[in-house]
Every structure is written in structure tokens, then in C-alpha cells.
Amino acid sequence: MDPVPALEEPLKQPLKSVLGPATAKVMAEHLGLHTVGDLLHHYPRRYEERGQLTHLADLPMDEHVTVVAQVADARLHSFASSRAPRGKGQRLEVTITDGSGRLQLVFFGNGVHKPHKDLLPGTRAMFAGKVSVFNHRLQLAHPAYELLKGDGEETAETWAGALIPLYPATAKLESWKIGKAVQTVLPAAQEAVDPLPPALREGRGLLPLPEALVRIHRPATKADIAAARARLKWDEAFVLQVALARRRYADAQLPAVARHPKPDGLLTAFDDRLPFTLTEGQRKVSREIFAGLATEHPMHRLLQGEVGSGKTLVALRAMLAVVDAGGQAAMLAPTEVLAQQHHRSITEMMGDLAEGGMLGGTEHATKVVLLTGSMGAAARRKALLDLATGEAGIVIGTHALIEDKVQFHDLGLVVVDEQHRFGVEQRDALRGKGKQPPHLLVMTATPIPRTVAMTVFGDLETSVLDQLPAGRSPIASHVVPAADKPHFLARAWERVREEAENGHQAYVVCPRIGDDIDEAADPKKAARKKSAEDEAEKRPPLAVLDVAGQLAEGPLKGLCVEVLHGRMHPDDKDAVMRRFAAGETDVLVATTVIEVGVNVPNATVMVIMDADRFGVSQLHQLRGRVGRGSAPGLCLLVTEMPEASPARQRLNAVAATLDGFELSRIDLEQRREGDVLGQAQSGARSSLRVLAVIEDEEVIAEARAEAMALVTADPELERLPGLRTALDALLDEEREQYLEKG
Question: What is the CA radius of gyration of the chain?
């Protein structure tokens, strides 16, 4: 019998039995911690030194923070209110300082007595609460606090050592309470089973796991923290890369049909008709893809390219190569608008090569069919028949392609557009349609830094298209601070009008559709959501239906303004897009349905309302919809957020560069990559705790190489029971499926 699980038992103990049901319940519900092992891996976010104080100047808004600071002064005020009409209401205002800044604490009502007694000037304490703004000043209302009594009995015991660990906490459980719980379970760290092979650990001079866990929670020095983090980073990187390496190894064992294009077939005929030459980048990436298609195990390749770098053309050439080799190719798009657009542009690019079986078709021609959920029954039956008989070599569709009724004659390649919109299950279902696993090409226009690609898409080989085709115009981007400088917004609408008068078109993007069912149904919920937020955040995000009406009546009066959003009937959406593409509409007011794939070369300007409500990558995607023709593009990011806010800094970064890879790094640094692995794909909680995918590029690359060597030598990890246990812990069922289906 395998001795390892027995060793693991102390770490598998439920927290309930160690800390009591009340604390365990809060930890499970708010922090996702269920066992002793989970708590030992809940690492401090940072450490405070006894002699030093937190930077109050850089506290984040609306976040739950823990600070260590000194009381500068405390004043008790009386006031009259509805509850205490005779001026008997009491408010205690305490100012704390850390040398870098000051922060106001407020306590009300009966809650003032204890802090009034405890928080005397000169007292040092830890304070925890949610940062809000009142009268343009940061404050914590009713924070929890723990006095630091220097060498008092309790403090010395609880916060042994000079460094105070501050844990990611919640309103229900302050950092110091988590610290005390960790001290309770820390002895169990000695039983932790080490997942790293001894040779790897010793060769790299890494601490044993039990020692690393003790040092990260109870460091005596900063060197302890550094050594512990270095070790724990390796665990995360290595266990994850082993999981991915096993996935790649298993894929390499699967059979697939090698697809070689005919020397004078459809692909050659298509290439001969192209009115331009391929860029060097497109040729290089095509060579990588054709090499993958020619192997007898399934190709799994991620094709990343900047907005407008010509990914669709590269994917189409791969599909034509597969049709040449007697197979079929399917392209999966996230929305009907996009599926129709791909179908239109692919049939246009192919011309009579897309008319297989028709009178006008040439000898090499094939049939290109569209399959979406909203098609009429007759058209749908015809498309399904063409797929089952093999008459159609290429099919483009939405998730409708995945339904059970859809049968392929010989599915050889699946192309997935905009990876981040597709669940892993959907990709898996489509792959299951082939007699043998088909080859897979995943396209994304969201540039992904190399290490994230190695981490999130570690089971896919990566090709990058970073060259823009000739004839693309530069896009100028500017932030429009609507609150500070309203005349800038007026000028933005003038620019839109000027572009329209010069025969061009514009997009106006809003975060919301309007006539919101959810908020109308529960106004209390809407009010509650907004109460603690800053002025600019108080109002709901701007909506397409409201903005379109105001523009048509106001600054853009006389221009043809139309709306496009996800709740419209598919036929109406298609009609609006056709009119816009044909130049009949001057201004399209839309939600992010236009974010991917929409290609109207005559559109030169985009105004993004409430731009601070969008992520960096999303803004970059949206901006890529303009400047697709010969005229230069203009993107205006409208916001009411104040100059110094993080949101404004994010927008300034987007305006400052067109390099998607640079922006994706900024995006990641800002989001703290908490969701890089889990939520990006499956909604699972991220397992990355100390590994920072941007900073730790070297560790990830080295871990990947070590993992590949290890799995090639011992695919079942028979000689490493500790690593198997760690893998089981990482791959709870949801993540196991995610990797299985990647």
C-alpha cells in the first residue's frame, strides 16, 4: 500500500476540528480554506516590521486593508441626529500616522467608548477595515484593531519575531486572527510531504517544504522570507508544469490523421489569387502550422496575433490545406455576429473556390457553410447534410456546431476564435466529433506574455504573429477627462462629426445596454452596490440606449445613428452590421459585441464611454476596430475618474502604447494575476499564491524544462509519490477536467 496518504493526514484535517466551527465556517466561506493544509498555504501578503509603519499614502480604495500605525490624536464630538436629537450622538475621530501620510478613523454611537479608552496618542496598533472616502479624505469606519503593546505578554507570544505577517483577510476575519489560527496549525507543517524530487531540490539549493512553511509564517529575518518564497514558487511552478507536461505527453500518444496539402490543390489555387503577398510573419507561422498538421498525433497550437495582424488568413490557409488532404475544417466563433462576419469574409476571400458543387465553382472548389442557432429549419437541414456527406469542406459556426445532431464526414481541423470566450467543455465536445482526434488551432487577439502562455496554455504550442500587414494605419489614442474638462468631451463629438462629414464612420462603445432588468427589479441592491463608492462610480455605467438617443438629439443631430447590442434579434444585429459595413450608418452605438473580429475599414474613430469600466486588454481589443483602412484611426477614452486614480493611470497606459504585449503585462500586474490559471478557464480559485507569472519568468521556464524531462522519463510518476499527492491537491476535479480538455 502507498504510505504517502497516511503521512498527509495531519494536513487533510478539517479546520473545524482544529479551530472550532465558527472560525472554520468563515475561513471556508470567505477565504476558500477548508483543511489544515489549505491554511498553511494561505501565505502572508506582506510583512510589517515592528519599527516601521505602513505606507498610508498608497492605500487602495474599497479594499479591505490591514495597517500598522501610530495614533496622532483622538477627538470625541457630540452631534444631533434623528436617533439622538438632543445632541447626544457621539463620534470619535482618531487620526493615525505612519510618517508617509495620515488616515482618519471614525467610530460612532456606543462603539466609541472602548476605542476612546484604548487609542491614546502615541499608541501603536494594527487596524483593519475597508478604505472609503469621506469629504475627499481617506477613512476607515469602525475598523477592528489590535494594540501592539511592545513587550506585553500577549503580543510577544502572538507576534513572535520582529516581522508581523499580514494575511489576505476579509471583513469577517482580521489578519491577526488568521495569524493566530496559523500559529495553531503550524506544528502540522512538519508532516508536509515534499513534492520536489530530492535531486532537483538539492541541485537548486531549495529549502525542504516543512521548513519553508515555517519560515514563511514565522520569519525571523527578511532572508527567511526570501528563502521560503523561492522554495514555494518552485512548488507552484513545478507541480503545475508537471500537470501540463503529462497532458502534452498523453496527447502525443493519441493517434491523428496526418494532413498533407496536395501540391496543386485548393491551397495553391487560393494563394495564386491573393492580391497581396503574405508578410514574413504569416509565412513563418503557416510553416509551423503545416508542420503540425503533417504529424500523426493531434496538433494543439495557440496562434496569437495583434489585432489586425492577419490571423484569419493564416487560419483559412490551414483549413484549405486540410480540405486538400480530404478532411473537413470547422471554425468556432464566440458570437453569431462574428460567425456571420467570418463566413462573409472567408467566402469573399475564396471567391469561386467557395462554390464547390455549384455551376460557377472551379475544379478545386469546396463548399463553405454557416451554422448558427438562429438559422431557419430548412437552411439548417441543408447545412447539416452538407457536413455529413463531406460536400462542405469548411463550416463556420457558433456553439451550434457542438450539438449532438451535427455529424462530420471527416473532421480534420478545429479552429477556435478568441479562446477566452470558449469553455474548455465546448472545445472538447467539438474535438469529439472527429473519427480520430482532429488537429486544434486556437486563435486569440489578446496578446499573452510568454510566461502566461506557458502557464495557462501550457499544453498548447505557441505561434506569434507580431507584424502588421502593409497598408494598416496608426491609431492615435487620447484620454478625455469628462469631469475635469467637459469641453474636451464636446470636442470629441465635434471630431466624430468631422470624420462623418469626410465620409468616414464612428463607433461609440458603452458598458451597458440600458433598460436594465436586474437593477429595476431590485433598486435596493443597486443602491447598496453604489453607496461606498467614489463620486464618479456612484452613477450606473452609461448605457447604449440612453447615449444613442442623447447623441442623435444633441451633438450628432442630423447624422445616421444606430444601436447594436447582445439582446437584439440575430437578424436585426446582422442587418445593422450590414448597413454599417455598407457605409449607410454614420455612427454605431454599441456594447462590446463589436470587440472581436468586426472589420469595417471605413470606420476611423471610436469613442469609449466610461472607459475606466473596461479592462486594459478589452480596451486594446476595442481600439483595434478602427484604423483598419488607409485613413488613420482615432480612439478617445472618456472617463470621469479623477487624475490620480488607478483607473486613470490604466487609461493613460492604454493611450501611451499600441503594443498589445506591453499592455497585457500592465493588465496582469494590475490584476495581480489572481485569476490567470483557474478563473480564466474554469471558474476555479487560482492556485497561484507566491508565483508571479510576470516576474518569475525564469522559474516558470526552468520548471517547464525540468517537468518535461521528468514526465518523459516517468510518465506515471511512480518513483515520486509526494509529487503525485501534490498533483492531486492541485487538480481538484474541476481543474483536472480543465487540463484534461485543454
Answer: 30
Within 13-57, residue ranges assigned H as helices are 15-19, 21-31, 36-40
Question: CA 486, CA 474: separation in Å to the nearest integer?
Answer: 27
Q: What is the pLDDT of residue 649?
A: 84
Is residue 417 within 8 Å of residue 342, measured between CB atoms? Answer: yes
In 156-276, DSSP assigns E strands to 163-166
14 vs 9, 21, 36, 39, 183, CA distance in Å?
10, 10, 6, 10, 16
Q: Are 183 and 158 in contact (CB under 8 A)?
A: yes
Cα-flanking dihedrals φ and ψ of residue 565, to 5°?
-155, 170
C-alpha cell at 23: 472560525
**pTM assigned to the model:** 0.64
pLDDT band at residue 519 under the 50/70/90 scheme: very low
Give whole-number Cα distances, 246 to 242, 292, 440, 678, 740, in Å: 6, 19, 18, 18, 10
Q: At what angle do helices 733-741 and 222-253 cross, to 10 degrees?
A: 50
Residues 6+ apart with CB under 8 A from 555: 490, 493, 494, 496, 497
Contact 74, 123 (CB under 8 A): no
Query: Closest Cα partner for 68 from 5, 133, 146?
Result: 146
Strand partners, 411: 328
| Residue pair 394/366 in contact by the 8 Å Cβ criterion | yes
Q: Return d(Cα 689, Cα 709) in angstroms, integer.
A: 25
Residue 9: count of CB within 10 angstroms of its CB: 11
Distance between CA atoms of residues 634 and 359, nearest Å: 45
